[in-house]
């Protein structure tokens, strides 16, 4: 998980930022990105792609990363913007926001990005499956995932009929059935619903 970072450190890059996003495939809510710079040489036990970790383990690692990171930035792009500019551009915008927030604390000199390109003059590398290959990207994946999951718990209080606390906005059978029964709410991504819902569904 440190091969990419070690190579960059050995070439004089000191502040290597990992960047990743979550929520790209959700029907509901924000796409969330994180940018994380960890101290040179640190190795965090148990860190991995957030999708492979239990909720309990993600929460544990979230605390560890928060305590040891040199800087963390979070970016959020809401459902209306996703519909307006498309999900790929929204994910890139969230990453750009996360990098801008990170840069308030520490200015990275290299970016490791999970299979994407960030709008930045900073040198960067898009790493396919980066959240499983780079500790920095995995750390960003965990920070973004926990942040978004916590948002889902808040949204669940506002829209309890959809069961967001359990499925986190993904297109599960329960979620699809709830949309058919209750209609879409203002935080649903309208452009994501056409293949699921009938034409008579009223969108608010």
From TrEMBL:
Q: Provide GO CC annotations from the record.
A: cytoplasm; ribonuclease H2 complex
Q: Where is the RNase H type-2 domain?
A: 14-204
**Which cofactors, if any, are listed as required?**
Mn(2+); Mg(2+)
Catalyzed chemical reaction(s): Endonucleolytic cleavage to 5'-phosphomonoester
Per UniProt, the keywords (alphabetical) are:
Cytoplasm, Endonuclease, Hydrolase, Manganese, Metal-binding, Nuclease
EC assignment: 3.1.26.4
What is the species listed in this Swiss-Prot or TrEMBL entry?
Paenibacillus hemerocallicola
Top EC class for this record: hydrolase
Cell compartment(s), UniProt = Cytoplasm
The protein's superkingdom reads: Bacteria
- What is the protein name given in its UniProt record? Ribonuclease HII
Gene this chain is encoded by: rnhB
Q: What does this protein do?
A: Endonuclease that specifically degrades the RNA of RNA-DNA hybrids.
Show the Pfam families listed in the entry. RNase_HII
| Primary subcellular site in the record, as a coarse category | cytoplasm
Q: What is an annotated GO biological process for this record, any one?
A: mismatch repair
Instruction: Report whether Nuclease shows up as a keyword of the record.
Output: yes
Report a single Gene Ontology molecular function.
RNA-DNA hybrid ribonuclease activity
What does the sequence similarity comment in the record state about its family? Belongs to the RNase HII family.
Q: Which residues bind a divalent metal cation?
A: 20-21, 114
UniProt KW Nuclease keyword:
yes
């Amino acid at each position: 998980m440190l091969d990419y970072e070690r190579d960059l450190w050995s070439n004089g890059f000191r502040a290597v930022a990992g960047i990743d996003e979550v929520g790209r495939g959700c029907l509901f809510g924000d796409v969330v990105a994180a940018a994380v710079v960890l101290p040179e040489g640190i190795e965090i036990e148990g860190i991995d792609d957030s999708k492979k970790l239990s909720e309990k383990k993600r929460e544990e690692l979230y605390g560890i990363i928060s305590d040891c990171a040199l800087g963390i930035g979070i970016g959020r792009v809401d459902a209306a913007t996703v519909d307006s500019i498309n999900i790929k551009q929204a994910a890139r915008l969230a990453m750009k926001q996360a990098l801008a927030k990170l840069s308030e604390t520490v200015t990275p000199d290299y970016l490791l990005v999970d299979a994407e390109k960030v709008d930045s003059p900073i040198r960067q590398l898009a790493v396919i499956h980066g959240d499983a290959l780079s500790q920095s990207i995995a750390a960003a994946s965990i920070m973004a995932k926990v942040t978004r999951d916590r948002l889902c718990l808040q949204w669940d209080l506002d829209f309890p009929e959809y069961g967001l606390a359990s499925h986190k906005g993904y297109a599960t059978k329960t979620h699809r059935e709830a949309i058919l029964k209750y209609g879409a709410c203002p935080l649903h991504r309208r452009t994501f619903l056409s293949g699921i819902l009938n034409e008579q569904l009223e969108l608010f």
